[in-house]
Amino acid sequence: MATRSTDPVTLAPHSGDVVVLGGPASADPAVLGGKAARLADMIAAGLPVPPAFCLTTGLFTRYLADTGLAGKIEGAEGGAVRELILATRLPAPLADEVLAAYERLGRPRVAVRSSALKEDSAARSFAGQHDTVLDVAGDAALLDAVRQCWASLWSARATAYRDGDAAEAMAVVVQEMVHCDVSGVLFTVDPVSARPHRVVVEACRGLGEGLVSGRVSSDLFVVDDRSLEVAEERVRYKVAKWAPLAPGKIGMTKVDAAERSVPCLGHAQLAELARLGLRVREHYGSEQDVEWGLRDGAFHLFQTRPITTRPLPDDAAARGGALSPYVAQQPDAVQQGTLWSRMDIGEIFVGLMTPLGLSFARYYQENVHTDCAAALGVRDTGDADLHMGYYQGHIYLNISYSAYLLGQALPTRDQRHFTKRFVGEDVEGGALADYENPFGKFPGGMEDVLSTAHWLRHTAAEALRMKSRSGAMVTSRLYEFDRARRLDLTRMSRRELHAELTRNLGWFHDMHVGYMPYYINAFGFYGILTELCRMWLGAEGENLQNRIKTDMSSLRTVESAKEIWAVAQAAKDRPRVLKIINDEPLENVAAALRADDEGAAFWERHMEPFLRANGTRGHQEMELTHPRWIDDPSYIFQMIRRYASDGFSADDILKRSSGYHDDSREMLKKLSLPQRKVIETVISLYALCSELRETTRMSMITSIWLVRNVVYEVGRRLVEAGVLHSLDEVAHLDFADVRAYLAGGAGELESFPRERIDEARRLHEYRKRLPEPPLTFIGEHDITQAVRPAPGGARLSGLGASPGRVIGRARIVEDLVWQADEFEAGEILVTRYTDASWTPLFAIAGGVVTDVGSMLSHSSIVSREFHVPSVVNTKYATQRINTGDMVMVDGDTGVVEVVEG
Questions:
Q1: Which are the contacts of 879, defined by CB distance < 8 A and separation ≥ 6?
Q2: First CA to last CA across the chain, in angstroms?
């Protein structure tokens, strides 16, 4: 919708409590509130602000007096006051004044926004504390929206933010609605860095509410405020946006495919926008946080407020963490000589973590990880603080210290057997050949004898009990899952919730400790197989371990894809059920199925067993903020839609060939009989450990889901108490604070200070801007000095993870839930990284290409099981390849090439 003229509208003389912004009336915050006063000032200064009028604090006071609410709300609880206002209509004279102003504005669709007295002040922003109602049209809807804004002065979150201060009068802004093509925020100074002359712009498709809520991807631009040239540019693949879904209804919808990889703003537009931002800064004489939108090529400013947060100083610690992943400073030789890696440490830790995810990982490090080491037969498990590290929001394993401790075990007595499995090309080229572990070798003598004996006893016992222990873990998982489904956490007291979290953390410990031997043993046998192929077959045996048929298509992760297929077939056999799944919005499908007789029967017979077996899967499982399939089955419904429409059977997919000739058996025939028997034995042990690993992995990730349930119940209560604006802010909590809150008597505000939440959010937003840190590095790494543009050209090199050669159309997948229904069978899946939740897409992919990965990452293992050619660790694939490009993927050589743009 194009904006109307910003010329002031002349109102009737009796409407002194309704003021046109930018008109002759003064922009007095005591009358207009902070936000409206700013808008009036901006309009008067000639800035492009959509026309608006303000219902002053005087009108609000008259409303309270004329309705008799003034006496009723004195001393009343905030929630009661809010309900009284929502239930009390405006008296006719007041309503007439509001509607007269609306008529003079031209009765467009409008945004109705709060404007409290101290809102957007230099001291406190009140950002997000009071209500905004978008896309309002019609007299009744406008009056309802006004009362909603007034009532939000007593919302729980606004009351908590005031921290004991009394509620003051509330003005309301009624502003013409602009359905923006692009929206965003502009900071006239970098809010998290002290770098001078930097205007920071974040931009998303659609309305800015998606960006503010953190639910959509955005582009980041940095403009030099002297030259107005773009100094930095980070364009992300943008799948979803906030936009009108129907008149009066705003929500999430998809970005047009042609716009997803395109920058939201061109350089000329960025220069124009920066100029506007600098005008605002100059006008107010202070750094500003400006909300803006672009419609039909014209910029509009919706709001500005002083930047109230303190920029982080420009040193190593403030760039999101020290240059080393160590939690505490170490001796220089250790600090500079440690080998760090995030390769093959399990998909649960992959990718950038939120503050909550990082703090939960820290809990795991302090309370679980050393016992996991003990489960491998390590007698001395060392210092918990040295096992893991954290860099720019990513989790790293201390390979040097782990190799030192694993020197107690016979298979890893030579540290190189362990170290080389975690080293990527970032530190290859001779760096590892001369590498000396700063921790040295594990002490010899009697310590060595005792440790070796301990490892032998433990390993013998593990071999005897590994199968029975796996069965016990599966039985335990089903019991805990069913128990959790029966519990109603909302009815528990804080003390009971603390007991539940304590119980769940105990099971979390046991399942991770139980899982670790299967994971490491499968890892170890893969390494032995690789070494034997290289040693006995030489160049001919290169990559042979990935071509040997291990008959692991029954792995739990792969099996989940087959089970979704079975559910999809069951839906396909029931046209009414499939119609509900296809036609309803994703968020409504589950409820719509349960409300329908045939749908309810389908849910009970097919969905419930599937969710019991697979429902605790999800993206990046150690990241507590991600919902699991059972929490949000949208992805499952997307895959049902896709599987039901493609006409393939599960057997068709599992038996398909990627086109390469499997010569592994012919190669093995060249070996002597004893050598062949040894390799076949190692293959069978690798297959057994892999199967047990996948079976028990479900117990491990279910234990994380149980912890997540309690954390989100705490989050729900914090939203109810007004401490959090929404459940999205749970991501910025610290897990230690959650535990302390449940264990102690401190209140919500004391346990979760707003300043700490906001600081965690700022730091996380800063980390999201940074490039992906390396998979492995030695010592320290300064990511701000290591930024290099992606190389040009259409040919990329990575690791050939699954053999075969295929040509197909590429599809960039950024958001699994939103894009699963777009993915066509045979397309090349191109993404940053994958985990177990992506497996159903592999079943129909022609090939897989990732920015990040290793030979034992999820994308590699599952690609091999589905016989899908795969190249991982390309670093730049999602930046250099576009959806629709014809791409050649060579899983043998590790080359990806765009053959037709």
A1: 790
A2: 35
More confident residue, 131 or 136: 136
| Non-local CB neighbours of 578 within 8 Å, separated by 6+ positions | 571, 572, 644
**Residue 325: count of CB within 10 angstroms of its CB:** 23
* Residue 689: pLDDT band with limits 50, 70, 90: confident
Distance of CA 37 to the CA centre of its chain: 37
SS3 assignment for 20-68 = ECCCCCCCCHHHHHHHHHHHHHHHHCCCCCCCEEEECHHHHHHHHHHHC
Q: Which of 343, 213, 346, 326 is nearest to 622 (CA)?
A: 346
**CA distance linking residue 659 with residue 642, whole number of Å:** 24
Q: How far apart are CA 871 and CA 403, in angstroms?
A: 28
pLDDT in tens, 40-57: 999 999 999 999 999 999
Please report which confidence band the pLDDT of residue 669 belongs to, taking 50, 70 and 90 as the band edges. confident
The whole-angstrom distance between residue 805's C-alpha and the CA centroid of its chain comes to: 32
Average pLDDT over the chain reads 84
Residue 819 binned pLDDT confidence (cut-offs 50, 70, 90): confident
Architecture of 795-900 per CATH?
3-Layer(bba) Sandwich (3.50)
Q: Pairing between strand 298-306 and 288-295? A: antiparallel
CA distance 804 to 783: 35
For 244, the token pair is 């009108």
Any idea of the CA torsion for 627, 630, 633, 639, to the nearest 10 degrees?
A: 110
Smallest Cα–Cα separation from 406: which of 439, 434, 435? Answer: 439
Instruction: Tell me how far apart the alpha carbons of residues 774 and 856 are, in angstroms, rounded to a whole number.
Output: 17
For 693, the token pair is 């690993």
* CATH code that applies to domain 18-176: 3.30.1490.20
The partner residues of 18 in beta bridges, in order of sequence, read 55
420 to each of 299, 347, 396, 664, 702, how far by Cα in Å? 54, 19, 16, 24, 31
Give the separation between CA 674 and CA 680, rounded to whole angstroms: 10
What's the pLDDT at 347? 62
720: nearest Cα among 127, 131, 155: 155
What are the residue ranges spanned by the domains of the chain?
Answer: 18-176, 182-306, 555-664, 795-900
Query: What b/e sequence results for 748-777 when a residue is b if at least 16 CB atoms lie within 10 Å of its CB, and e otherwise?
Result: bbebbebeebbbbbbbbebbbbbebbbbbb
> φ, ψ for residue 822 (rounded to 5)?
-85, -25
As a whole number of angstroms, the distance between CA 251 and CA 209 comes to 9
Q: What is the per-residue pLDDT across 271-293, written as a single tens digit (0 to 9) for each?
A: 999 999 999 999 999 989 999 99
Dump pLDDT digits (tens) for 386-440: 999 999 899 999 999 999 998 888 888 888 777 877 776 566 544 566 788 999 9
H/E stretch holding 486 reads: helix 445-486
CA–CA gap between residue 108 and residue 175 (Å, rounded):
9
d(CA 199, CA 292): 14
Residue range 374-385: mean pLDDT, rounded: 93
Q: For residue 124, is pLDDT > 60?
A: no
Instruction: Say which amino acid occupies 677.
Output: K
Strands 219-224 and 230-234: antiparallel
User: 275: buried, middle or exposed (CB in 10 Å: 19+, 13-18, 0-12)?
Assistant: middle
Place of tokens 């031997």: 517
DSSP readout, 879-890?
HH--TT-EEEEE
CA distance 900 to 826: 16
How far, in Å, CA of 110 to CA of 80, rounded?
A: 28
Number of helices (H), then strands (E), in the chain: 32, 25
Topology of 182-306 in CATH?
Answer: D-amino Acid Aminotransferase; Chain A, domain 1 (3.30.470)
Q: What pTM value is reported for the model?
A: 0.78
Q: Would you put residue 647 in left (φ > 0), alpha (ψ -120 to 50) or beta?
A: left
Residue 531 has pLDDT above 50, yes or no: yes
